[in-house]
Amino acid sequence: MSILIKNAFVYTGDDFIKNDVLIDGGSIAAIGGFFSNNADIIIDAQDKYLIPAFADVHVHLREPGFSYKETIKAGTAAAAKAGYTAVCTMPNVNPVPDSVEGINSQLDIINRDAKINVYPFASITKGRKGAGELVDFESLKNLAVGFSDDGCGVQGESDMKAAMIECAKLGKIISAHCEVNELLHGGYIHDGEYAKLHGHKGICSESEWAQIERDCRLAEETGCQYHVCHISTKESVDIIRKAKAKGVKVTCETAPHYLTLCDMDLKEDGRFKMNPPLRSAEDRQALVEGVLDGTIDVIATDHAPHSIEEKSKGLAGSAMGIVGLETAFAVLYTKLVKSGVITLPKLINMMSVRPREIFSLGGGKIEVGEKADLALLDLNAKWTVNPDEFLTLGRATPFEGWELFGKNTLTVMGGEIIYETV
């Protein structure tokens, strides 16, 4: 089936140029103007923006084991609606993907229910405990996009070094949730001004950056490709910036909430609780600077759905995690691009191109011969975040009620339309 998308501003990497794009046989067949209208499907983009489809390297799809929070079917439908054609799903499931059998139980559901491409992480440690026996990396290398104990940090230096040595041999990436357990002290929001004013237990910034500092040193020693999940502190940005300057093979991500909110935006509501927590305004600004200078490579959502009951117990008692797939682009476009902080090509690079490059997911270019994984964005669409309209099963978002600009109107994967606004 051929698809002709006419009159779109087409992403070129550095800019957007108005063009027509012809898709045929699953790939981009031609780019240019004044194509004849003989394709099977003709779409007039009406000056919307055609981009490489988004890729999210940090989502929680909750299956197997926790389908009351989210399902692969619902989560990937939400992703397709938002313009994603690829997500990497974290190992916080049951059974833990710490063996061939464990990861295959997840892949079976993915193959049956996923609306887009889903790439699972295997865990680093048996049981995803952050300590103890390491997984058999060799047996999992062809089944997993990488290795992560997301939800907890690998506590022992010797364990992380051994994991990095194995992954370096196999050419696989470690995607690390960095958290020192002994520094948590029962905290559940940032150990900052809001916590002090409202009598909450805080999580210190060092619990994050101390492990990043250790791991960057180990990555330098082992040559492992090392990716840092959801960084939230100014110290983390500085450590990664210095490691990159030394040639360490380190990349990192942050999330929309860390770039647009700080701890003084908290409300006594579970929809503001996630791990790591919202940090200070100074941390938020350091993250923005890390985006601008290239220290931060990727913006991922850390989409982490929970049930309404689990998120209804305030800051102290609610489960950690918020949903993010259906708001990510619009939040960042509205708050960072329209305000002039970053350019639209920069945002597309961080949400579409770099994630695919770092994790070898393919795509990320609109060029003749490339696979047709595309999204069509209406930058003038104005809407208000209403969780009841989400396709994800999760409802907890700190962006509820926000008035935003920018909406995906069409998602094409492998040359097939998988989402289109009615």
What key phrases describe this protein's structure?
422 residues; alpha/beta; eight-stranded mixed beta sheet; four-stranded parallel beta sheet; 12 helices; globular
Question: How would you describe this structure to a colleague?
Answer:
With 422 residues, this protein is an alpha/beta fold. Helices cover 29% and strands 22% of the residues. The protein has 12 helices and 17 strands. The chain has helices at 72-82, 100-113, 137-140, 157-170, 193-198, 206-222, 234-245, 256-260, 281-292, 314-317, 328-337, 344-358; strands at residues 3-11, 16-24, 27-32, 41-44, 49-52, 54-59, 84-89, 117-120, 173-176, 189-190, 202-203, 225-228, 250-254, 298-299, 374-384, 403-413, 416-420. Strands 1, 2, 3, 4, 5, 15, 16 and 17 form an 8-stranded mixed beta sheet that branches. Helix 4 (157-170) crosses helix 6, helix 6 runs parallel beside helix 7 (234-245) and helix 7 (234-245) runs parallel beside helix 9. It is globular. The model has no long low-confidence stretch (mean pLDDT 97).
The string of secondary-structure elements, in order, is EEEEEEHEHEHHEEHEHEHEHHEHHHEEE
Class computed from helices, strands and strand pairing = alpha/beta
Largest sheet: 8 strands, mixed
Task: List the uncertain runs.
Answer: none
| Total beta strands | 17
Per the principal axes of the C-alpha atoms, what is the gross shape? globular
Strand content: 15-25%
Average pLDDT for all residues = 97
| CA gyration radius, whole angstroms | 21 Å
- Total DSSP helices: 12
What share of residues is helical?
Answer: 25-40%
Distance between the termini: 20 Å
